[in-house]
Amino acid sequence: MKKRFITICLTFVMALSGLALVACGDDSSDVNPYESYQTTLASMRENKTLFKNGTTDYGMESDFYLNNFYDKNAEGIKVEGNQNYIFLTAYGLNYINKYYTYLSDLSGYDFSGLNSALESLTSYLPVIDLASENIVSADQIANISVYRSYFVEYEANAKELINIVFDNALALSDFLINERGLTAGLGTETQTQEQITFYIENEVLYAINDVRVILMESAKGKVLTGNDIYDGAVKLLSYYGGLVTNNSYITSITAETMADSINLSNLLAGERTTTRKANSSFSIYDYENDKNILLDGDNRAYYAQLQKYYSMDNNFLQQYYNYLATNIYE
Amino acid sequence: MAKASKDYKAGGAKKWLIIIGILVLIAIIVTVIVLVIPGNTADAVDRLRQSSQTSFLENRSEEEKYDTFGQKLTNSSISYFVTGNEYASVEIVSGSINLILDFYNEYLPLAKDNKTLSKNYKKIKNNLEDAVDHQKEMNEIMDEANALKAGSDTHLKNLWVDFRISFTDYITSMAKAIDALNNCYQGCFPSTLSNNLASSTILNTIDDFLSVITSEFKALTKSNLKEHTQADYNYTTYGKVVYFSAFVENYLYDENDIYSYNFDASLQEKYKKVNDFYATYSQSNFTNVISSISSSNLEIEFTPGQVDSDGILDAVKAFLNVR
Question: In 10 A of CB A66, how many CB atoms?
């Protein structure tokens, strides 16, 4: 009896100790990453090997234009790398650069998602920094084939950077909407222009991210001109890219129009969930490069969904762009 | 030492507690299995995929077999099954069913695995498998018919009557499977652009078409028997079949209404008006509209019991007649 009592007490104490250890463990949920974002973005801006100030395709200005992103042709002449890489990097960092400021003076929120995403970015920067330095060195001393091998590495690192940047942008968006509640009251008479702008810019972020998923994940960063999904995604990037230029701005819209817009965005989000299922099960790069992959069985359903979302004549992202361009933007 | 009481058996109550405990545990496990662990819904996806590739008259050899059967009928004294358009109806309905299966085949693999899918996947799988059995029957009948020598008209007629019965069973099974597929489409893609008033109206109308056509074929199997002659024959479903075929081609093959609905105010108006029919004239009258399609002049002959001042009936007619 005494032995049983002591065993029970010991077990209880050990369980409590374990819980205490977990509770007292390293917890980043309380730390506001505002200053970390500020420092990181400032250092990125100052890194003139990796970034420069420039105007991307579709007229978007950015301090985060990928620098030295040049391949060389057989004659050794520099050819600028895939413009989609440059645009996506710059766009994602522009978004973060604008909206991280909303974190200023916040406390008492769960910042863990943001901190985790930022950690991925800061830990990756040295990798791509090295790749950009290597390409500069190779340009001065290496032969064409060596230079090109360094560019392949730089391009691969840039693809990874884009994916991490978008993870950060989406984490920031998610925090501001769900934790901070920045869109509460939208679609009612209490809505503010700031809220409207934030909401619409987020919808554009999600759409551009949809394109990123095709270009950087499904196509693995490669150019697949001729594949209708790829071509459709590139065309959509040109449309949505045009919405984020300095010359576009969001008009002041009524609460009723905003409520309709929110409803439409929610339906697009539902369709996006279905499309992600297709994205995760089907790669257009694999399809174009592996003769054993056919459009039969479930692949047919996945491909059809991607066409509905990205490439057929009245695809969903195109129709949503038309809606924004007609009803929301000027 | 005290004697133990005669009535006391050590551990008796404990034994009963253990038995009850085991029974409760079994009940919990069974409940978990039934309610929580989902069925193998992938079976329905596989079955649907196979059916969309191999449904009746989808493959060339089956088409050729049916052509030969048709030639035999045309060159016999019972050619009225061909000239009366029943023979053509089988071909048309089978083609439309295949288009419908193709449509759902592009969705089911992406369906959200929820209660709706759990409730319907067995109905999809079982009815598609039943359809395969009836398709086998039709093939056996065609083989027998095609082997007949010239002049075997009585035998040929009997075989056509048997074929009609198997075909009716085939479309009955397909209609049930398609109804369950419709349930999955509407219930497994919540809050998406693809699932809207246009899609539900179109898919429900397809179910209604199949219900009418299946009922009429069932009635024909009862009214046109082997011993009957041309004088007793009255096939009146051709008009519905023609409308059905055009409807499926227009709305499911070209899916513009479904995909553009949420972005197009005129489409929203169109489908609101079609759906106003149910409130104004009742759900059962929608099926009556389909039933009223005439085979002789290919017109919708339904007349409402009231003045259609809002043009709702005209909207429904325009919706159904896309030939």
Answer: 30
- What is the distance between the alpha carbons of residues B186 and B62, in angstroms, rounded to a whole number? 33
**Helices A83-99/A193-212 angle, 10° precision:** 150
As a whole number of angstroms, the distance between CA A88 and CA A212 comes to 7
Provide the residue range defining the domain that includes B157.
40-320
Mutation target vs B (from A263, A274, A319; most B CBs, 10 A cutoff) = A274
pTM of the model as a whole: 0.88
Work out the end-to-end distance of chain A between its first and last CA atoms, rounded to an integer number of angstroms: 81
Query: Quick check: B30 pLDDT over 80?
Result: no
In three-state form (DSSP H/G/I as H, E/B as E, the rest C), the secondary structure along B128-141 is HHHHHHHHHHHHHH
Residues in A closer than 8 angstroms to B263, CB to CB, are: 264, 319-320, 322-323
Asked if residues A144 and A76 have their Cβ atoms less than 8 Å apart, the reply is yes
> Is residue B10 situated within a structural domain?
no
The Cα of A118 is separated from the nearest Cα of chain B by a number of Å equal to: 32
End-to-end Cα separation, chain B, in angstroms: 103
Per-residue pLDDT at B111 exceeds 60: yes
Mean pLDDT over all residues of chain A?
Answer: 92
Predicted confidence band at B157 (pLDDT cuts at 50, 70, 90)? very high
Number of structural domains (chain B) is 1
Q: Is pLDDT of B37 > 70?
A: no
A271 vs B45, B105, B194: nearest CB: B194
For residue A227, is pLDDT > 90?
yes
A315 interaction partners in chain B (CB closer than 8 Å): 259
Asked if residue B174 belongs to a domain, the reply is yes
Residues of chain B with Cβ-Cβ distance to A267 below 8 Å are: 191-193, 196, 262
Q: Which amino acid is at A114?
A: L
Confidence (pLDDT) at B5: 46
Under 8 Å between Cβ of A230 and A284: yes
Contacts of residue B194 in chain A, CB cutoff 8 Å? 271, 274, 308
Indicate whether this complex's ipTM tops 0.90. no
Cα separations in angstroms, A32 against A66, A114, A176, A180, A190:
28, 9, 13, 12, 28
